[in-house]
UniProtKB/TrEMBL annotation:
<dbReference type="InterPro" id="IPR005180">
    <property type="entry name" value="DUF302"/>
</dbReference>
<feature type="domain" description="DUF302">
    <location>
        <begin position="91"/>
        <end position="154"/>
    </location>
</feature>
<dbReference type="Pfam" id="PF03625">
    <property type="entry name" value="DUF302"/>
</dbReference>
<dbReference type="InterPro" id="IPR035923">
    <property type="entry name" value="TT1751-like_sf"/>
</dbReference>
<protein>
    <submittedName>
        <fullName>Uncharacterized conserved protein, DUF302 family</fullName>
    </submittedName>
</protein>
Amino acid sequence: MPLVLVSVWPEKYRNRSSGYIVFIFLNLLRMSARNVERNAGIFVSNPTNNLKTKDMSYYFNTILGDRNFDDVVEDVKAGLAVEGFGVPAEVDMQKTFKIKLDINFRKYRILGACNPEYALKGVESEKNLGVLLPCSVVVQENEDGRVEVAAVNPKASMNFVDDPVVQEVASEIALRLERVIKNLG
């Protein structure tokens, strides 16, 4: 029997595009064969009951005053280290856009922050959690010259992972990333 997916979106969500495909896909994965048979192949999803992130921001940020961009990047790395994170990945978007697209873009650096202890705990509990790792921290220069630092909120990004260990890890990592952001100002 073919599977038909019907999703009812409240008006306030209809103009947003990000997250819907993931939401639908994750709900589809959660269905058991029994549910498909019981519902005659029709799955109805109402995100007002299931979408926990609707009131939760997907990032924490701060905007710093008169600070040198490269100094802020180093301060962020030092703050991450204090909280147990390494930075195994770093992407210079300004340089990448110039090389690949010949576009002049503002200073924009993505740091992939990883706390190995918590990453291991999460991946041991949920084998595919790595698709959400590492935690991204962005350092960017705004139009007014001030430097903004933003970090992903892992409680929002891991919200759909139905695993209490992962939720515990996400909460702890969120606290640590928030401290990094708060300590910059």
